[in-house]
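Good day; I would like, with your permission, to put a structural problem before you. A protein sequence and the structure tokens that stand for its backbone fold form the material at issue. The record follows directly beneath this note:
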Amino acid sequence: MNEYFETLQHTWTEQFKLLPIVETADGYKPVNEVLFFNGGLYTVRIVLMRVYELAAAFHKNIPVKDKVVLWSQFVGEWTSESLGFIGHEDLVLAISKEHLSKFDNDSLIKYFKTLILEERINFFSEHTLLPNLDGKFCLLSTLLYPKDLNDTLIEIGKILIPHSIERLIHKDFCFDFQFEKFNRKDFSNSVKTSLDEMEASICICLPETINLENFNKPVLEGIKKLEYPFFTSLLKYCKLNNNINSQSKPAILTKILSRYYLLDEGLIQISNLEIQEDNLDIRSARKILVQVFFNLLQHQNGEWVKLNVQLLLDIAHCNEDSLKEVYATSRIFPNQINQLKSVTELKRDIDVWSEIKELYNKVTK
């Protein structure tokens, strides 16, 4: 008798599944074409409210909101294996393949808080669920907490150290996770490492608008070049200062450099932190920035040098301890026939007759 009723129930269930009686966002559909919630998604009403909107973003073939629990409980008692159910695992997997912009932040935050309350922390380590600053979902273990980084630093970092910035957690999704901090000191170290790895100190950067007639062109063609957006971001980084009216030699030099590239000369305000060692240390980056500038400058031809002696003098006056190595090796000092030389290649003119100079010039030209 039991076998008879089991067979009857199975036959009835299979026929029932074919009936278009489940209301969904796309109209009424047969039971076997609809996805239902498993118990973990609807046992608590507040969880259901948070989950439904997310599930609906991926599936149109789910029961309407006010009937999803009833239908899910009903078909959950059937023994049919061909019915489709959605659980937390399915939902987090679907979320992990998307971008934050697909979702309402508040709904996602509330759902993630539900997972944490239910002690499903493993989901965040096994799936890319937590968004970085740009909304890309990442694994919990790969993310860092940005400490004392303002918007200006973040924008500069996106160009100079994109891989580091990509690891910074979105501020609304920190929850109570213990992220490793990424502070200003880490920012400076990452910039230095990036510049060293790309051998920036042997590069040049051409201005956006450039008159090649002012350069020794054959030499320029064989030199490694920095991308202009990267160089300008490096310049912005080196213009960060807690005193935008600073008259220090490095500050004046960045203004000269900006003028050469037809960029805004102003320094960029950033307040110092109370703990000195946590502040930015831009000295190594500034040294490389100046080196890149001098690498280009030394290829200016004689005509340009003749017209820009004052500029070269202003640059020479900006020499100081943190830059002395760059100044000592760079060919940015003009001789008397408008050739750029390094300090060690030049000698002081002491009472040399003008006739001798003219004869030398005739013989060497």
In short: The two ends are 117 Å apart (CA to CA). Residues 145 and 346 are 52 Å apart (CA to CA). Residues 2-16 form the longest helix (15 residues). The chain has a mean pLDDT of 88.
